[in-house]
TrEMBL record:
InterPro entries referenced in this protein's UniProt entry, alphabetically: KR_dom, NAD(P)-bd_dom_sf, SDR_fam
Segments forming domain Ketoreductase: 7-185
Domain of life: Bacteria
Signal peptide: none
Protein name: 3alpha(Or 20beta)-hydroxysteroid dehydrogenase
SMART domains for the chain: PKS_KR
Length: 243
């Protein structure tokens, strides 16, 4: 038996990186998964790779109507939703002096407002199951300082998680946040790669994490193994915040 047998999940930002790793593990553990992303080609390819228990849905996480469409598609395809992983997010390597208001608001919309929209949209479906789990992917920058915009929104995700956990507990819906450190995903590649490699030397674990290492924690929170955990932060950072 898999840990997620019979469960239906939506994973945002699921087409690549951590989201794709979560989707692969969820499928292995028996879930039916909707991969929700704006990256249509990558998302459809991943869904085809994962087989009949996976489906792709185009989703702009900042659009409430689009969320409603994805919820409807998920229910029509697989049934009521047990699990939502709010994984989509962006960052920007600019200082507070360099960042424009438009850029800042875009980060807030994608990293913060989308989490509110996703949680709100999925509640009616989860109420049908009496056994819902929402996993919000924050960051260690939801615990300590970092890039402007990114840090702000990741702290907000941490707070929203606690508020939503209190709001939704009487429906049997649990809400927790995951706080990864530096993970080997497309987000850290490119111009910042050399800086990341240098930073990794100072992580107590002496390396950055692979996405699958985060997925194992997300699986725990999505499954009934974590049935008494709600409103909590789960840190997976190789010891960065212990220093």
């Amino acid at each position: 038996m898999g840990k997620l047998d019979g469960k239906v999940a939506i994973i945002t930002g699921g087409a690549r990186g951590m989201g794709a790793a979560h989707a692969r593990l969820f499928i292995q553990e028996g879930a039916k998964v909707v991969i929700a992303d704006i990256l249509q080609d990558e998302g459809q390819a991943l869904a085809e790779e994962l087989g009949d228990n996976a489906a792709f849905a185009g989703l702009d996480v900042t659009d409430a109507e689009n969320w409603s469409t994805v919820i409807e598609l998920t229910e029509n395809t697989f049934g009521p939703i047990n699990i939502l992983v709010n994984n989509a997010g962006i960052t920007m390597a600019k200082s507070i002096e360099e960042m424009t208001e438009e850029e800042y608001r875009r980060i807030v919309d994608i990293n913060q407002v989308s989490v509110f929209l996703g949680m709100k949209a999925v509640v009616p479906s989860m109420k049908k199951t009496d056994n819902g789990s929402i996993v919000n992917i924050s960051s260690i920058n939801g615990l300590v300082g970092g890039a402007i915009g990114y840090t702000d929104t990741k702290f907000a995700v941490r707070g929203m998680t606690k508020a939503a956990a209190l709001n939704l507990s009487h429906y049997g819906i649990r809400v927790n946040s995951v706080h990864p450190g530096v993970i080997d995903t497309p987000m850290i590649h490119g111009d910042a790669k050399a800086q990341i490699e240098e930073f990794a030397k100072h992580i107590p674990a002496r390396r950055i994490a692979q996405p699958e290492e985060i997925s194992n924690l997300v699986l725990y929170l999505a499954s009934d193994d974590s049935s008494y955990s709600t409103g909590s932060e789960f840190v997976v950072d190789g010891g960065i915040t212990a220093q």
